[in-house]
Structures are given as structure tokens and as C-alpha cells.
Design goal:
Layout lengths: L1 E6 L2 H12 L15 E4 L4 E6 L4 H6 L5 E5 H7 L4 E5 L5 E8 L10 E5 L2 H10 L4 E5 L6 H4 L5 E6 L3 H5 L2 E10 L1 E5 L1 H6 L1 H20 L2
Parallel strand pairs: 1-3, 1-4, 7-8, 7-9
Antiparallel strand pairs: 2-3, 4-11, 5-11, 6-9, 6-10
Length: 212
């Protein structure tokens, strides 16, 4: 039995649909009930829903054999897991954004507001740019509007929120999407089962990419 940690929410629904297409469905997961764990012994798989930012923890600690986590989580927290497959879901990008007319002044520290301090620090370190990290947990777009920061580092999907607040993406740090990850010990001892799951999901992803 392969134990799978799924992210709650809209992305998780799409992820589960992909598992179904790959032949790893579990009918009870679509029923109205209060179950926390859903099993399909015939398919050799069980699922449970967790907060998206917690998926990597469940997998790293071995409570789940595999899971699906955003690339942003993997980059920010660097969990000790294997990244097996890009599921081509939840596509967006990590960006530097700020006022549309922003001009950087290299003579002073750049004030950067973000939920992702490690990603921001790593990016600006690669540019040898001195920064002052302002760690926020919500409404990141407010920071430059109120003068708290010069720019923000955040996930950008459509850019609509930025546009409505007279902000714009200034630089793309990296593209993001949902990734299949595996616990390192489970991967070793359940290699055949995990590889079959990975390959079946890869085929489902390819079919989805070819669909009109």
C-alpha cells in the first residue's frame, strides 16, 4: 500500500483527478463522509488530505510514502525528499514585483517583503545584491503601497492583483508547478510500486498536455 498525502483545495482536486486517470482512484474519496483516510486495496493506494504547506513534512517524516507539493514549498523549505515528477498542474511563477515605475538604487539595501525569505535571499545572493528581508504572511502587495518595502517576492499566477494595485512583475525568479515527491526510505523499499505510480502519472500528464 502506497500512502499519498494530497494538498487540500482546488489544486488537490486536480491532483486527485490525475491519480484517478492514472488508475489510482479511490471511490470513497468522492463520497460525502467524515473519513480522514481513504483506501483502495485493489489499487494498492491510500490517500489523506493535508494543508498544502504540510505535505512535504508528512512525506519527509515518513507518514506518507509520496505526496504532491508545490515547487515553491520545495525551494523555500528544502525538505529531504526525492522530487520524482512535474505534474504540470498549478502552473505559476515566483516573481519580484513592485511599482510599475520602480528603479533600483544599488547604493542602499533593497527592502524586500515576502512569504518566502529563503527563496528571496537565495535569488538576491546570486545577484550579489544586499537586501533587507521583511517577512510577512499575508497581503504582501500592501508592503510597497504603504512604503514598508521597495519590492515584493511572491507567487504570480495571472498578475491581475498586481495590475489592480499599480504593481507589475519586474523579474521572474523561477517557474512553479506541483511536483510528485517521495520519502527517501519508502522509495528505496517500495521502489517498484512507486516507480509504477510515477510512470502512470507521467502518462496521464502527457495525455493531459495533448488534450485540446
Amino acid at each position: 500500500m502506497i500512502h499519498v498525502a494530497l494538498p487540500k483545495g482546488r489544486l488537490g482536486e486536480s491532483v486527485y483527478a490525475l491519480f484517478e486517470q492514472a488508475g489510482y482512484g479511490c471511490p470513497s474519496i468522492r463520497e460525502k463522509n467524515r473519513k480522514l483516510i481513504f483506501e483502495n486495496p485493489e489499487a494498492g493506494v491510500s490517500f489523506f488530505w493535508v494543508k498544502p504547506s504540510d505535505v512535504a513534512i508528512y512525506v519527509e517524516r515518513g507518514a506518507a510514502d509520496v505526496g504532491v507539493a508545490g515547487k515553491d514549498i520545495l525551494l523555500e523549505y528544502a525538505p529531504d525528499v526525492y522530487e520524482l515528477l512535474d505534474l504540470n498542474l498549478g502552473r505559476c511563477r515566483m516573481c519580484v514585483a513592485g511599482p510599475e515605475d520602480f528603479l533600483d538604487d544599488p547604493a542602499r539595501s533593497l527592502r524586500v517583503a515576502t512569504k518566502f525569505p529563503n527563496i528571496a535571499r537565495g535569488y538576491y545572493s546570486s545577484l550579489s545584491r544586499e537586501i533587507d528581508i521583511i517577512h510577512l504572511n499575508g497581503s504582501i502587495e500592501l508592503a510597497p503601497l504603504l512604503g514598508l518595502s521597495d519590492v515584493i517576492v511572491d507567487i504570480v499566477e495571472t498578475g491581475k492583483t498586481l495590475l489592480e494595485n499599480h504593481l507589475a512583475p519586474l523579474e521572474t525568479i523561477t517557474p512553479l508547478s506541483a511536483r510528485l515527491i517521495a520519502n527517501k526510505v519508502s522509495y528505496k523499499f517500495q521502489y517498484d510500486e512507486t516507480a509504477r505510480l510515477r510512470d502512470a502519472l507521467a502518462q496521464a500528464v502527457k495525455k493531459g498536455e495533448k488534450a485540446p
